[in-house]
Protein: Nitric oxide synthase-interacting protein homolog
Organism: Anopheles gambiae
Amino acid sequence: MTRHARNCTAGAVYTYHEKKKDAANSGFGTTSRRIGKDSVKSFDCCSLTLQPCRNPVITKDGYLFDKEAILTYIISKKNEYSRKMKEYEKQMKQDEEEDAAKANAELQKKLDKFISTEKNIVSNKAVTLNEQPSTSGAISNVSLGKRKELPSFWVPSQTPAAKVSRIEKPDSKIYCPVSNKPLKAKDLIEVKFTLVKDPADKKSLIAKENRYMCAVTHDILSNSVPCAVLKPTGDVVTIECVEKIIKKDMIHPLTNEKLSESDIIPLQRGGTGFATTNEKLEAKEQKPCLQV
């Protein structure tokens, strides 16, 4: 009897491992894979550039951006809105011109009809009842000048033209690229990270594993540590510090300033790969499927 292994093909049962391996090699089906730590953005990195922020700013929803990157994004969206608005105004102007041309054509048609009616009234020509119209000739669509009314697919001037797609009025609001909520430049809040003071560590800021710490408790900040930003000063503290120290009397521990619930903005984390930190830890790749 043959020995069964993971890659054994002598068995009568099509195992799950063989099915998964064949699906990966065939290019069909859906492939799911757990996201690792290297695939997750760090808590102090910009949500657009995915690099450590030089001038960090935060939105009301807690998403961190580099100031230069988010302002460039806002300016590009404003330019795009201006371009779309010009195209929309041009379309509206063309519609007005077409409506005016149709109104003039209708007016001219009514005028011509009235003139022809007046000419028939004052005409001295008498039409007898015995006269009958001649029907000796064959009736054809191309007779009496109707050839010009029929579309022709081989004559360029008579080929039917496709209608131009309509342009919808653009939305003047700018939306956050992450949360898809309205975003304004004046609502961005500057963030102040507290550097870890370690004279023995002479690495660059990007190469350091522990870069920042809590402004109050001096705990090391990382993706596994929930953080919050104090809106009046922009200092970054841990959620534990907020719950145990700040929320007791709602006073800023560094400036003794009165705080409210809206002044505490939770910082959205990139994640660590653990289920307790992130909601989405799986990446799915959709592939074509074969149907019988």
